[in-house]
Every structure is written in structure tokens, then in C-alpha cells.
Amino acid sequence: MLEKLTTKRNILWSTLMTILCLVCFPANPLVLTGVIEVESYSTLSIIGCVVWAFGMVLVMAPIVMFPRRGGVPKGKSFINTTRVVDTGIYSIVRHPQYTGGIYAIFLTTLLWYPHWLFGVLGVIGAAVVYMSCREEDQRLIGKFGDDYRAYMKRVPGMNFVLGLVTSDVNNGHETSHAATSPA
Fold first, then answer.
1. Domains of the chain
2. pTM of the model as a whole
3. pLDDT per residue over 20-67, tens digit each?
């Protein structure tokens, strides 16, 4: 029964995220089709490009880091980690892929197309991503146990600024048990 509930919840979250990502995608269908008219500001557009590029780097992090640090068996997908990765970007945030998604989709869209609707949808999208991260943390606790719990105490889930500050403090505490699942 619990498995059915979890599956239904995952379908609901996935559907909601898909809709939000389509409506808030930087190559925005609402703007491109003329449904919403927005003014463009070159400064915000440039900042949006930088935010988008940074977000995409974060989105790609597990694809690069997990095979190198996560004990992924040869020939397996990067998601098949056997160790908690807590080095590199994973010493700053536990979920760079989700964090990068928020930057690359929701924040970039608002910067490129400053409209109240994208602000509201961005907040909703960020909340949905945050909830997904909390579920991912629970799954990873089940997979990695106390190693992941200790990692959670050292590294924030998505707060990049806090992660930069605390990574300096914890820098000497990085362990050799390096990768989590994509998040």
C-alpha cells in the first residue's frame, strides 16, 4: 500500500514539475507565442545568461562526478553509485543538480522575461524541487545510512552560499567515501 502511495506521489510531483518546467522554460512558449508580453532589459538578460550557464554546470555535475568518485561499476549509469560523494561541488551542496535546475529554469526565465507570473511559478517550482530533494535525502539515507546522515549534517541541501561558507570550515573534514544519486 505504501509503495502505491509513493508511486502516485512521484507521478504527481513529476507531472507538476514537467508542467512548471515547460511553462517556465527559458525559451518560453508563453512569451514566444505572444500570450504574455514582457519588456526585455539587457542587464537582466546578461545576468540571466550567466545564471543559466552556472545552473547548467550544476545540472551536469553528477554525470561527471559520480563515475569518478562514486564507485560506479564500469559500464553502469552514473546513478549507480556505491559511495557518498562529498568532494568537489558535493562538498558545497548535496543536490547541485536540483539547485542548478532552479537556477537554469526558474531564475533564468524570470531574469529574461521579468513578469509576475514567472515569479509566482518560479517560487512554486522551487518549492516542488525542494520537496523532491527532501524525498531524495530520505531515499539516500536508506541507501547509505549513517554516512549520508553525517554528510547531511556537514553540507546544506541547496543553499549554495551557506555551502561555500561552511565548506571552508569543513574542508579538512572531507571524507573518501565520495557519491549520491542525482540530485
1. 2-173 (1.20.120)
2. 0.78
3. 766 667 777 888 888 888 888 899 999 999 999 999 999 998 888 999
Using CA atoms, how far apart are residues 164 and 42, in angstroms rounded to an integer? 29
CA distances from 95 to 14, 64, 120 (A): 17, 14, 23
CB 135 within 8 A of CB 70: no
Closest CA relative to residue 29, chosen from 101, 109, 127: 109
Rounded Cα–Cα distance for residues 117 and 146 (Å): 42
Residues whose CB falls within 8 Å of the CB of residue 44, separated by 6 or more in sequence, listed in order: 111, 112, 114
What are the C-alpha distances in Å from 183 to residues 10, 37, 120, 151? 15, 34, 23, 14
Q: How far apart are CA 118 and CA 106, in angstroms?
A: 7
* Residues 72/66, Cβ–Cβ less than 8 Å: yes
